[in-house]
UniProtKB/TrEMBL annotation:
Pfam families: AAA_lid_14, HTH_8, Response_reg, Sigma54_activat. This is Sigma-54-dependent Fis family transcriptional regulator. The modification 4-aspartylphosphate is found at D52. The keyword Signal does not apply. It comes from the Bacteria. One of its GO terms (molecular function) is sequence-specific DNA binding. Signal peptide: none annotated. It comes from Pseudoalteromonas peptidolytica F12-50-A1. Residues 150-379 form the Sigma-54 factor interaction domain. Keywords: ATP-binding, Nucleotide-binding, Phosphoprotein, Transcription, Transcription regulation. GO terms for biological process: phosphorelay signal transduction system; regulation of DNA-templated transcription.
Length: 460
């Protein structure tokens, strides 16, 4: 319920204002001096102030009221103040509005005019608060988003990027398809950054994680008190992405009920926050993504065809990593550098056997698999050299901290290694297996500590 603070030294006036406003659905609180009003506004939530202009006996010029307006605005710059006086002059009205008052009403007041003014100014305050919240949220998001820096030497990927750069300039909705982990969300952000909307926000939302119950609240926002858990106003994804881009990831995971709601917004370009009557316009550009075969889902009636056509003004398929083998190495090196930095480890480098193994690997999990592999390697390798066995390519799915190193107890399957390389690999991997403990690693290979160090020196 919205709260009105009545500041008037006449208790009779306070009582009749309360009578009127409580009937209109507001809660009211009355104080008799500007000082009490300052205290109240500093500590309580107030949606509008009704302010008398004269408080000391025999004053009619409104000076106290004018001073109170400035002070109240300092405490809460968005607070609407409707001033009321029985001694209205045009000068005073002009001065009050100049100080920042929202409206000026003469006593005795007209009930209808006063109620209308209060309603309008409380709504305006809510709009301004939404705007402030929205800009703050947008600023926060921009600070957390790093801009996309594509690593690609593959002609195939370069063609896709060129196509996306061109499409980014249009206002078309784009559907990105492709296997798991190909980087569809990465490409979605790339489209946003190359579009005319780049100054707006890029808002990403995983539709698989949005339940039917939360769909309206997540996508359109809600007003405080709209439902039991709505403790605060919430700005929805469509509003956050106004004049920017809204990325709907895992779109095939949306239930039919939520698909219908999404379709309605896309068709009508209008939506309403839960608990609000205000109709908002959708100005976000929609980029969506899926790794499912939407045609199959449509045939099985699990995905609406009309929604599919709304989302895919144009459809772009992101290639799997195995279709861009030139990218494997540069991406691997980039991830190694990133994770070496994150884990404060020396920069890890790929030994020739590891390079070869990576190039031959199929990467069914695409860039994500490569990224996770490099993270694991950086974390588990005791030294900065990465050998083929450290990649644990044959049993990537059941990695544990030790599995990489256990696999080195047998001679690697790669038949291009020299004897030196095999020995080097065995030393480093055994060290990793024993958690960096040289004595244990040396003993397990039948070496003394000094023999161990001599060999380590040889392999730097
Ligand atoms: N070109 C790239 N450069 C650097 N990192 C990338 C690149 N492409 C993808 N990644 C990284 O790979 C991981 C997987 O990417 P992303 O989540 O975008 O894949 P996806 O295609 O959306 O997968 P899914 O269909 O499973 O949701 C992310 O951690 C992303 O940062």
């Amino acid at each position: 319920m919205k709260k009105v603070l009545i500041v008037d030294d006449s208790l009779d006036i306070q009582a009749s204002l309360k009578f009127l406003l409580e009937d209109e659905g507001y809660t009211c609180h009355g104080v008799v001096t500007p000082d009490a009003a300052f205290d109240y506004v500093s500590t309580q939530e107030v949606d509008l102030v009704l302010l008398d202009m004269n408080f000391t006996q025999d004053t009619t010029r409104g000076k106290e009221g004018l001073a109170a307006i400035s002070q109240l605005m300092q405490i809460d710059p968005l607070l609407p103040i409707v001033v009321m006086t029985g001694w209205a002059t045009l000068d005073l009205a002009v001065n009050a509005l100049k100080q920042g008052a929202a409206d000026f009403i003469e006593k005795p007041w007209d009930d209808e005019r006063l109620a209308h003014s209060i309603k309008v100014h409380i709504e305006k305050r809510a709009d301004r608060q939404d705007l402030v919240r929205l800009s703050a949220e947008n600023e926060r998001l921009k600070k957390t988003q790093r801009s996309i820096n594509f690593v690609t030497q593959s002609e195939h990927k370069q063609r896709v990027l060129a196509q996306l750069t061109q499409l980014a300039q249009s206002e078309m909705n784009i559907l990105l398809t492709g296997e798991n982990g190909t980087g569809k969300s990465y490409y979605a952000q790339y489209i946003h950054e190359h579009s005319r909307r780049a100054d707006g926000s890029f808002i990403s939302i995983n539709m698989g994680a949005v339940s039917d119950e939360l769909f309206n609240s997540e996508l359109f926002g809600h007003k405080k008190g709209a439902f039991t858990d709505a403790k605060e106003d919430r700005v929805g994804a469509f509003t956050l992405a106004s004049n920017g881009s809204l990325f709907l990831d895992e779109i095939a995971n949306l239930s039919l009920r939520s698909q219908a709601k999404l379709l309605q917004v896309l068709e009508e370009r209008k939506y309403t926050a839960v608990g609000s009557h205000k109709v908002l316009e959708n100005t976000a550009r929609i980029i969506s993504a899926t790794n499912s075969k939407l045609h199959d889902a449509i045939a099985n009636q699990a995905f609406r065809q009309d929604l599919y056509y709304r989302l895919n003004t144009v459809e772009v398929e992101i290639p799997p990593l195995r279709a861009c083998p030139e990218d494997i190495l540069p991406l691997a090196e980039r991830f190694l550098s990133q994770f070496s930095h994150n884990y404060k480890k020396p920069l890890a480098s790929l030994m020739p056997c590891a390079v070869k193994a990576l190039k031959q690997y199929e990467f069914l999990g695409n860039v994500r698999e490569l990224k996770h592999m490099m993270e694991r390697v950086v974390f588990t390798c005791a030294n900065a050299k990465v050998f083929a066995s450290d990649l644990a390519l044959n049993n990537a799915s059941d990695q544990s901290l030790h599995s990489t190193t256990k696999s080195t107890s047998v001679i690697p399957e790669n038949h291009d290694l020299t004897l030196d390389e095999i020995v080097e690999q065995a030393l480093f991997s055994r060290l990793a297996f024993h958690g960096g403990n040289v004595s244990k690693a040396a003993k397990s290979l039948g070496l003394s500590r000094s023999a161990w160090y001599r060999k380590m020196d040889k392999y730097e």
